[in-house]
TrEMBL record:
This is Dienelactone hydrolase domain-containing protein. It comes from Caenorhabditis remanei. InterPro entries: AB_hydrolase_fold (IPR029058), Dienelactn_hydro (IPR002925), FrsA_esterase (IPR050261). Residues 27-242 form the Dienelactone hydrolase domain. GO terms for molecular function: hydrolase activity. It holds the Pfam family DLH. SUPFAM superfamilies: alpha/beta-Hydrolases (SSF53474).
Length: 243
């Protein structure tokens, strides 16, 4: 399927401006299309996130690679990227919540989208983002986290998660996400009566979806082709089910 690419500017509730990469199927049909927001890993939008957005558009979804840092802010240095992510994850309600909800609101403005059929996927830092969206009960049909942090949001009630199907893909050899965090995630999801699937991929380390992961120079971060392909296949299957 042919796909059109453009940049989409949007603002969060604090007025900060962001610029995401939008991919839309070229179709002459009148049917409204489901939408998927892609939340990036710690580097922000890279070619990896753009490729995933394009791949989703080729499946018939309107796809937006979300901008976590702001328009024109595209850090490339590893330490600079981590420095920008840390304040967001340390203030997940006050700092991160407006950023991630802004992208969902933005995709709903795209012509031809079915606003009742929105999902989200996220990698690493982005995995945290999409799990938080599920926790906030903003009406997403499905969210998929890949090697994301699984920690609950501090100091908020464990409300039921209603109407959002959750997939969490985890590397069984991920030293960045300890077993205690995995166990606590299961306890939280059960307490929230969530519709969730947790997949632990054998021998996969942190960052297993990213083909460039081995070049990051970070201990315990490594690409795993089998886990990457299986988790993506499961994602497409889930979206076909819920949409």
């Amino acid at each position: 399927m042919s796909v059109a690419h453009s940049l989409l500017q949007y603002k969060d509730s604090n007025g900060k401006v962001y610029e995401g990469d939008l991919y839309v199927p070229r179709t002459t049909g009148m049917r409204k299309l489901p939408g998927v927001v892609i939340y990036p890993a710690f580097r922000g939008i890279t070619e990896f996130e753009k490729e995933k957005a394009k791949a989703l558009a080729q499946e018939g979804y309107i796809a937006l690679a979300a901008d976590p840092f702001g328009k024109g802010i595209r850090p490339t240095d590893k330490m600079e990227c981590l420095g920008m992510v840390r304040p967001l994850v340390s203030e997940r309600v006050k700092g991160l919540k407006p950023v991630i909800i802004a992208a969902v609101n933005a995709i709903k403005t795209v012509q031809g989208i079915d606003v009742q059929k929105i999902g989200a996927i996220g990698f690493c830092f982005g995995g945290t983002c999409v799990l938080d969206l599920a926790r906030y009960n903003i009406g997403l049909k499905a969210v998929v986290s890949y090697h994301g942090t699984l920690k609950a949001i501090p100091d908020i009630p464990l409300d039921k998660i209603v109407g959002t199907a959750i997939q969490a893909h985890h590397g069984d050899a991920d030293t960045h996400i300890p077993k205690e965090q995995v166990d606590e995630f299961h306890v939280e999801m059960r307490a929230r009566n969530a519709d969730f699937v947790f997949a632990s991929h054998a021998f996969a380390e942190h960052g297993f979806t990213e083909p460039d992961a081995d070049s990051f120079g970070l201990p315990g971060v490594k690409y795993n082709e089998k886990a990457a392909k299986r988790s993506w296949s499961a994602t497409l299957s889930l979206f076909k089910e819920v949409f």
